[in-house]
Amino acid sequence: MKIKKYFIPKRRSFIKLAAFSVATITVLSIFLLRASTTQNYYENEIKTVRLRSLYQMCEYTSLLPDDLHKLANSAAPTAELSSNILKNTSCAKTCLSDFPQDNDSLSQIYKFYSQVDSLITSISNGSLSIEQEQSNLRRLADSAQNLTYRLEDVLNMCITGSLSLTQVPDAIADNQTAFYSSGLDYANNTLADIKTNSFKGAEESAFLNHFDTVTKKEAAKIAAEHLNVETVLLRKTRNDDSSLELYKFYYRDSFISITKNGGKVCSFFMPCEAKEKTLSAEDAVIRAKEALKNWGYKSLKEKYYFIKDNVCTITFVHIDGEVICYPDTIKIKIALDNGETVGFDASEYFKNHKERSYKYENTFIEGMIPSSLNVLRISLALISHEGTEILCHEILCTDGESEYLVYLNSENAAQEKILKLEKTDSGTLIK
Length: 431
Hints:
By secondary structure, this protein is α+β, with helices and mostly antiparallel strands. Helix content is 42%, strand content 23%.
């Protein structure tokens, strides 16, 4: 009996110790699992934000070369052109701020955007003249073009998996940061000077205001159905510089935004590596029209397309009777290997689309086109110019080599805008 009394407490102590150890290990395992899950979540969040930022920075930078060349060839700066340049550099800097801020290569690229900002601001306020800075504007345009090419290469490497996002800063630089900065000293900003940009509040959409507001849960369901994934797999991302009220989600490397009013798909982007071209541009237009029809869009007509990396980007505009409404624009991307819709952007359509009445004067426009140009076609078109909508005569002309679109105000025949159409085997570029 004494032996039993001696051993029983020891055995119970061992059992208690074992139970405590098992419980401790279980709790630690759960904690580590949760920590690992949380870490993976934030790593995926950072990866997605940076990939999206890289894509958007590429888009904004690609708009700079043509606008800088236009300004270099202008007699005087226009508010619209200057505003577009400043908007694109501001957005590009915001995208750049999503990457580590202790990288000297990125500081040089940030400085490049700041140089463009400073020069355009000085020209706009009259401190500098276009004539004086014409060569520098062209140098900056060339730098922007080279930076665009590099950003596109880096983005493609990230999408195909041959480059990790942690390698992006050094890959963007590629030992050419001195060239991006162009040796100019308009601005000395570095990445350390980045501050959160304050954007204007969301604009009201006359089109979307007629619809009821949807909840985040309802928007997530719409997004999941569109991307063909389970709702629980979606992650909500931040609402950054959008001028519309949107819910934004991502799944892996795909992004989608849903309007808070009406729950409509505003934009989406899915990484695409179309290796083999099996469809023509005409096939892509047919696929795009079918997609728009299925999504409920009417009275849209394709205007231009451009093919790059076997993906066809098609621009559609709203047709209101005889009037081409350029503010109401939708862009859609079709992969030319399988016809899949891999990109869509209706933000301009949602911001601008509304019921309109037109004040039309039977303006006498004969003699307003130079004799060096031959008129091919005349249409009525609504364009956005310096923050307002103007009804114009859209006159398609040619000089025998290139085609131009000249826009004459329908009330007084004043020239509002002129664009050059550059037609290539890949489609039409508008400059």
